[in-house]
Amino acid sequence: DAKTTQPTSMDCAEGRAANLPCNHSTISGNEYVYWYRQIHSQGPQYIIHGLKNNETNEMASLIITEDRKSSTLILPHATLRDTAVYYCIAPEFYNQGGKLIFGQGTELSVKP
Amino acid sequence: GAGVSQSPRYKVAKRGQDVALRCDPISGHVSLFWYQQALGQGPEFLTYFQNEAQLDKSGLPSDRFFAERPEGSVSTLKIQRTQQEDSAVYLCASSPPPGGQGYSPLHFGNGTRLTVT
């Protein structure tokens, strides 16, 4: 079962910041949180991951609460091309592989 | 650069037919995963390979599903005697050897959409 919970859907105005929340109160102290997104008719795309520090890359920022029970993915200036389903995942690690258990994700609609 | 390639992009099969779905991972990627995605749902894990070894097949829904990766590169997912409930998008993903954090993100292909009539 997925270890994370997310809202089913969200809207965001084009050019504004999109803040996507994720609850992961049951993950352990050494489990990373990963974010992927899936644009319609495409495979999932990796966005960012983090453990306990905030992270930023060219796509997004990830803010993780100090107690690690929740996190927020931030798209600073959302565009129409950011419309997608966003998945927050805590992978299972084993045998040098990462088994992703996807939940339902958050369907983000960026509107003009 | 080249990403994960899956073929065919679309496949229509009559119930009872056998199908074979191909995945070409990114060169040098040792880990390979297959996922099944039903309409409106998140992808569900089917099986995992490390090189040619199938280390986890716990997600395969029945013994009609079989996956192989004989030379540690290209992988084939085979479904025998297809049923309507097998209709879904089948996604393949690969990843390189783990990095400093012990895990490398997965690179997904765009999937094969299987429709069983």
The proportion of residues forming helix of chain B, as a percent range, comes to: under 10%
Order of helices and strands of chain B: EEEEEEEEEEE
Which consecutive residue ranges of chain B, at least 5 long each, have pLDDT under 50?
Answer: none
Q: Count of DSSP E strands of chain A? A: 11
Whole-angstrom Rg of chain B: 14 Å
How would you sum up this structure, described in words?
The complex is a heterodimer of chains A (112) and B (117). Chain A has 112 residues and is mainly β. Chain A has no helices and 11 strands. Chain A has strands at 9-13, 18-23, 33-38, 45-50, 55-56, 61-64, 70-75, 84-89, 92-94, 97-99, 106-111. A 5-stranded mixed sheet of chain A has the order 1-11-8-3-4, with no helix packed on it. In chain A, a hairpin with a 4-residue loop joins strand 5 (55-56) and strand 6 (61-64). Chain A starts with 8 loop residues before the first strand and ends with a strand. Chain B has 117 residues and is mostly beta strands. In chain B, 0% of the residues lie in helices and 47% in strands. Chain B has strands at residues 5-7, 10-13, 19-24, 31-37, 44-50, 53-56, 65-68, 75-79, 88-95, 107-108, 112-116. In chain B, the strands form 2 sheets. In chain B, strands 2, 4, 5, 6, 9, 10 and 11 form a 7-stranded mixed sheet that branches. In chain B, strand 5 (44-50) and strand 6 form a beta hairpin. Chain B starts with a strand and ends with a strand. At the A-B interface, strand 4 and strand 10 of A face strand 4, strand 5, strand 9 and strand 10 of B.
Concise account of the structure shown:
Chain A has no helices and eleven strands.
Provide keyphrases for this structure.
heterodimer, A: 112 residues, mainly beta, five-stranded mixed beta sheet, four-stranded antiparallel beta sheet, 47% strand, globular, B: 117 residues, seven-stranded mixed beta sheet, 11 strands
